[in-house]
Design a protein that fits this description.
Low-confidence stretches: none
CATH topology of the largest domain: Endonuclease III, domain 1
Helix content: 55-70%
CATH superfamily of the largest domain: Hypothetical protein, domain 2
Strand content: under 5%
Order of helices and strands: HHHHHHHHHHHHEHHEE
Largest sheet: 3 strands, antiparallel
Number of domains: 2
Radius of gyration: 21 Å
Mean pLDDT: 91
Number of strands: 3
Distance between the termini: 54 Å
Strand order of the largest sheet: 1-3-2
Amino acid sequence: MDAATIKAFQYTVMEYYRLHGRSLAWRSKEPDDTHYAYKVLVSEIMLQQTQVSRVEPKFRDFLDSFPDIHDLASASRADVLRLWSGLGYNRRAIYLQEASRYLEQVTQPWTIDQLITCTGIGYNTAAAICVYAYNQPHVFIETNVRTVYIHHFFQEQDVVDDKEISPIIEQTMDVTNPREFYWALMDYGSWLKARGNQSLRRSRQYSRQSVFQGSRRQLRGQIIRLLTKNGSLTVTEVEEIINDDRLHTVIDNLKRDELITVRSGRLSL
């Protein structure tokens, strides 16, 4: 790719960010990178498969209750789940707390290899944490990044694999300030999608999210919210509120995933 093409692409992305960049709580820089990395860790786990608008209020509440990694690591699982309730995919709350218990013992800066040893953190999330927390130039791909690169560099291609996108990110990344460059990609990609851009559908890695209404996911969330509100309920009390043939199977699954406990017929977080 020639220098002029790279420069024009970088200008498009960064000019959009200059004019329309979002002010998000987890982008607020801390004087201490060690503490900032914790904020980035929380936000990246919360943002997995969840819209920014839903994450923002939860992120603020979460940081108010667990202002640093040691607070989260030492918190009760029930308190963590109560704060998480409403974000969905509640196992992420457990993964985040387990990660905090490991990472509080690890000298910073954390490495990608250290981060991916944590359940729930894959390569792309680990690389994103290192980019945002420490301004390190790593290549990672998520939906907004795919949207931007497929839109700009693969307009004539029906199916695009992440393996084709990665080398172009490497060529076009601003290695002097990758943190801001990726912020710009996120905001620009979000804007493209909001305008109806369908580039993401041409990604080989694209998969449509399953319908939430009426799903087991929704039922799991209902049970968690009930226990968040009431503290503890008997199985019979839950049955009176939720009339669903799948209820007992979902309760068993929640117990297996260690999201709830069941003792003497009573459910609690």
